[in-house]
Amino acid sequence: MEETRMVTVTVDGESYSYPRGTPYRAVAADFQARFPCDILLVNRDGKLCELHKVLDRDCSLKMVTAQDKPGIQTYERSAVFLLLKAFYDVVGPERVERISVEYSLSSALFLLTRGSFTLDQALLDQVEARMRELSAAALPIEKRSISTDDAIDLFRQAGMVHKADLLSFRINSRVNIYSLDGFVNYFYGYMVPDTSYVRCFGLELFENGFVLRLPTQGDPNQLGEFRPSKKVFWELYESSLRARALDVSSVAELNTAVSQGNTTPLILAYEAMMEKKIGDIAAEIAGRKEVRFVMIAGPSSSGKTTFSHRLSTQLRAHGLRPHAIATDNYFKNREDTPRDENGNYDFEGLDAMDVEQFNTDMSRLLRGETVELPTYNFKKGAREYTGNFLKLEEGDVLVIEGIHCLNDRFTHSLPKESKYRVYISCLTTLNIDDHNRIPTTDARLLRRIERDARTRGYSAQATIQMWPSVRRGEENNIFPFQDSADVIFNSALIYETALLKPYVQPLLFGVPRDSEEYIEAKRLLKFLNYFLPIPADNVPTTSLMREFIGGGIYHA
Fold this sequence. Notes:
Elements lengths: L5 E6 L2 E6 L4 H8 L7 E6 L2 E4 L8 E7 L3 H23 L4 E9 L3 E8 L5 H16 L4 E7 H10 L3 H7 L6 E7 L2 E3 L16 E5 L2 E5 L16 H16 L5 H9 L3 H25 L5 E5 L6 H14 L3 E6 L28 H12 L4 E2 L2 E3 L4 E3 L4 E2 L5 E6 L17 E7 L14 H17 L3 H18 L9 E4 L5 H14 L8 H11 L17 H4 L7
Parallel strand pairs: 1-5, 13-19, 13-20, 14-19, 20-21
Antiparallel strand pairs: 1-2, 3-4, 3-5, 6-7, 7-12, 8-9, 9-10, 11-12, 15-18, 16-17
Helix pairs in contact: 2-3, 4-5, 5-7, 8-9, 11-12, 11-13, 13-14
């Protein structure tokens, strides 16, 4: 009888022996008591592995829960699979024409449905009850590899044409599909091993669709608060309508346009749509005679600088004279800058700004006085005055960009009617297919990786490493104030990921395999594989994307 071979598993610096072929799920169970929430994946020597896989070598393991980014993504993906299975069970596959996951909205996913049924809360309650039955049954979520041609036929026969079209652009000859109690689907990313792992969810009607409420990474054991921004929602919805009008609402449709040589008309049409929106904003500002301050805020890599330039051009076309003001020039002197809990300077918080000096200067300008504006010397960490005088005349407006521009505390002395507030963000509505969405943060991260490399010499590893800190600053200082904006401007371009692919892909390949950032780099590389690349030749020099890839006419 052949002796069972043992393998050595190192967890948190300690070594343990397991028989070769032991499922990772069994190993995870031995360490589950150390974690406040379920272990969903394992990180084996820098590679994410699903729990149904087995030990086949000596290795180091890190447990991944929903408090880790790959874990919460796995939970969300598995919850969508469970929802789809339950929906088809309750309604009947013959009555479901389409269910599409559109976008993330305040700890929830917004979905649209189409078919011969009435979407109401009573139906959603039935679907949720079925989801809980399936969860309690601990049904296995099985993964298998089939030929890409077979997968295309399978999904086409099932009426999931969007998936069949997506896979038709796949180079690999095989593809992994998942099945749950006979229901088959394709997902980008990993899954939990069975339905018992998905316990925290809720379904609610919302606007013309419904939401799948989910837990947050901060607290995976209870539903996140659902307080959606209606303004952001309607901007996303209008953007999705614009994409559908151009027949590009999924990666497959974008790839079709690229493969048929229709990218230039697509680029020009979307740029024209964006320019019209900027022109409409300028017209509204010009119509409010009392507005003297145009306040622009948005998260990192939203394209605020280019937007400010293009808005200024449109304001000039409406007879106004815009003057740019950078709020960075109102940082406190370095010795007065507050520090965070780690003792580092906190440049993100409002307390890092000299709020009173900013309000004094702006109030004087509003009264018609001549004001000498400061310039911040970042090398010295101090404000300097170098003779930059300004006086507001009739028709003059200040275009002010900064992360605190929507926060009333930052402009507390300025009359409300003198301010016009713009929230700008990259709110992508393009999804991989009906059931695999693209997070808006991914679009911004890809932008940031390319711009950091081009303008600052940063590696993709460095940008990925600092990204969580950037996101925390946005959560604290930008997102809470988005609904106070007079208008929301979506800076996402339908073609941008295909455009960024040739720029970002080599940078991501440069992330070392033994680094903590490698898992995220690998995920982004897999994501980029879905896109056919678009050359930058026909992207206008005024395009917002030029802020990230270079070649623009604006200093950004």
